[in-house]
Amino acid sequence: MKILITGGTGFVGTAVSRRLLESGHEVTVIGSSVSHHPAPHPQLVHVVADTTRPGDWQRLVPEQDALVNLAGRSVFNLWTERYKQAIRDSRILTTRNLVDALPETTETVLLSTSAAGYYGDGGESEKDEASEPGSDFLARVCRDWEAEAGRAADKGARVALMRFGVVLGKDGGAMATMRIPFQLGLGGPIGNGRQWFPWIHLDDLVNAVVFLLGAEECKGPFNFTAPQPVRQKEFARQLGAAFHRPACLPAPAFAMGLLGEFGRSLLQGQKALPQGLINSGYLFTYPDLPAALREIIGD
After folding, report:
1. Coil/strand/helix, residue 113
2. b vs e for 73-100, b when ≥16 Cβ sit within 10 Å of the residue's Cβ?
């Protein structure tokens, strides 16, 4: 297949493009910087472009068999009004421009990222793909993001929406932020730690992308979360144990409140279950957290 990946030079995009190249596909990666240029490969094309703006990069879209839309500014920053707009624009405008570039009739496959934050603060309720969206900032972004991707279905594309949990892997992502404090024994839960923590191992995320690309009957939303979610307090305990360190220094709720809307979002959680993937026949390599952490950190 010929596959185009937006946001393809990030932590997730690099892993996805590597797997697709290993499988013999032709991959075009679009990123915003040459400083994150993927390793050279004869079947890899790297394009530098700002996908929030229409441009020459859109001419590549009709040539593709599949599109994997991973673009999005990190949410791990202070949410000033300007930065919140950047979070929205990087997701919604990129997706809008991607779909606009599709011909009016197409058989392309579009796999477009969303997040478990779609459900807002889920409390104790289990969230599958049929659950209603939340109403906070991230939930509204996810809802609008998915709506832009859904327009591709009107052109005949098969659209699958990937609602990512926290992605755990060796070389970046959330683990890059958490590794040092937990190695030093300075880690701990956020707030009271009772909020549910939806997570997924990077290998399962990549495998699920490949699975959905090949599963012609699969469309609509899919929770990209492990089937055994844990509370944030349990996640912190297990991560500390993996580093052979205590994890008993919580980040108090009042301290999170000092970070404003972003900090308060860290006190929320979703017990998001991957019912769509399971029902479609996907088998998780790392369904439980201890096995995932052993692979990432070692014994």
Report:
1. strand
2. bebeeebeeeebebbbebbbbbbbbbbe
Q: Any idea which residue has 């999170």 for tokens?
A: 256
| Mean pLDDT value of segment 126-131 | 98
Say how far apart CA 91 and CA 86 lie, in whole Å: 9
| CA separation for the pair 252, 257 (Å, rounded) | 9
Instruction: State phi, psi for 167 to the nearest 5 degrees.
Output: -90, 125
Instruction: Specify which of 24-38, 93-107, 178-192, 250-264 reaches the highest per-range mean pLDDT.
Output: 93-107
Burial class (CB in 10 A: 0-12, 13-18, 19+), 135: exposed
The whole-model pTM stands at: 0.94
For 115, phi then psi, to 5°, come to: -155, 160
Could you give the CA distance from residue 101 to residue 152 in angstroms, rounded to a whole number?
A: 10
Nearest-CA neighbor of 248 among 240, 257, 256, 260? 240
In the block, residue with structure tokens 């624009």: 89
Q: Which residues pair with 196 in a beta bridge?
A: 231
State the Cα–Cα distance between residues 123 and 86, nearest whole angstrom. Answer: 28
DSSP string, 59-102: GGGGG-SEEEE-----S-S---HHHHHHHHHHHHHHHHHHHHTS
Mean pLDDT throughout 198-214?
A: 98
